[in-house]
Amino acid sequence: MTDRPSPSSSNSCMSHQLVDGHVVDLDTVRDVARFRNATREELYAKRKAVSLDARRATATAIGTLLNEAIGDPKNKVIAAYWPIRGELDLRDWMANMHNRGAILSLPVMPAKHQPLEFHHWTPQSEMQMGHFNIPIPAASAPLDPDIIVVPLLGVDAAQYRLGNGGGYYDRTLARRPNAHTIGIGAEFCQIQTIFPQPWDIKLNTILLAP
Ligand SMILES: Nc1nc2c(c(=O)[nH]1)N(C=O)[C@@H](CNc1ccc(C(=O)N[C@@H](CCC(=O)O)C(=O)O)cc1)CN2
Ligand SMILES: Nc1ncnc2c1ncn2[C@@H]1O[C@H](COP(=O)(O)OP(=O)(O)OP(=O)(O)O)[C@@H](O)[C@H]1O
């Protein structure tokens, strides 16, 4: 052994880690994570303060905006989501899209920290419990969505999303550059910036309703 510092013990290398091939600064990552966790708590609290009736009205308004944005849904493969933690409930809209000829799908986590898959769903689909107790279609039928409707916890002025903090949508969208992404939420989701990091992916369209 020599006392020459090895690359792995030098400060410059300790201050970096690889996230999906991205080089990032650990101090920045820590500060950004702290900011985002505090912002998530504020946004969860705002969401919780909304009455069920008001949330339903927002979801209905978002459904109308989605119809305008998507146009004729026939044969389009659309990913939506099964609502958790006070997210807007779009299941009536999803059933309506299905009746108009769209092919619907829901996110499925194949494993922790891995990209999401999207499995075929119809209003008749039998459901089972997936990770984090989120219901998923019992039959596993992965699809390649044309449109991905993403629930917003927060969204910033540059169309970057704040979600539940697992990084799942970022990992997923990084591998699906051709899908058109639509972030949906209530107007109070808006924040100035999430301090975007190399792994964050901007959404193509943002739809917000009062
Ligand atoms: N409706 C809906 N479905 C979805 C998502 C979503 O945001 N909304 N997802 C979008 O990603 C995936 C689930 N993502 C999730 C990410 C984190 C946690 C969660 O509970 N995290 C813990 C921390 C766990 C840990 O540290 O390992 C927590 O917040 O307490 C739950 C779901 C797939 N399905
Ligand atoms: N493409 C990726 N590869 C590896 N790690 C990633 C990737 N994207 C995000 N992460 C990691 O996931 C963690 C959470 O990311 P972020 O704060 O962006 O979550 P989020 O977008 O709010 O979560 P979610 O998409 O699950 O709702 C970060 O520590 C980040 O390093």
Automatic annotation (TrEMBL):
Pfam families the record matches = 5-FTHF_cyc-lig
Q: What is its EC number?
A: 6.3.3.2
* Positions with a binding annotation for substrate: 87
Per its record, the protein catalyses: (6S)-5-formyl-5,6,7,8-tetrahydrofolate + ATP = (6R)-5,10-methenyltetrahydrofolate + ADP + phosphate
Q: Where is the signal peptide?
A: none
State the Gene Ontology terms under molecular function.
Answer: 5-formyltetrahydrofolate cyclo-ligase activity; ATP binding; metal ion binding
Q: Which cofactors does the annotated protein need, by name?
A: Mg(2+)
Q: Which GO terms describe its biological process?
A: folic acid-containing compound biosynthetic process; tetrahydrofolate interconversion
Q: Give the enzyme class.
A: ligase
The residues that the entry says bind ATP are 161-169
Instruction: Kindly give the InterPro entries that the UniProt entry links to this protein.
Output: FTHF_cligase (IPR002698), FTHF_cligase-like_sf (IPR024185), NagB/RpiA_transferase-like (IPR037171)
Listed A to Z, the keywords are:
ATP-binding, Ligase, Magnesium, Metal-binding, Nucleotide-binding
The family classification in the record reads:
Belongs to the 5-formyltetrahydrofolate cyclo-ligase family.
Q: Which PANTHER family does the record cross-reference, listed alphabetically?
A: 5-FORMYLTETRAHYDROFOLATE CYCLO-LIGASE (PTHR23407:SF1), ATPASE INHIBITOR/5-FORMYLTETRAHYDROFOLATE CYCLO-LIGASE (PTHR23407)
**In its UniProt entry, what is this protein called?**
5-formyltetrahydrofolate cyclo-ligase
Source organism: Maritalea myrionectae
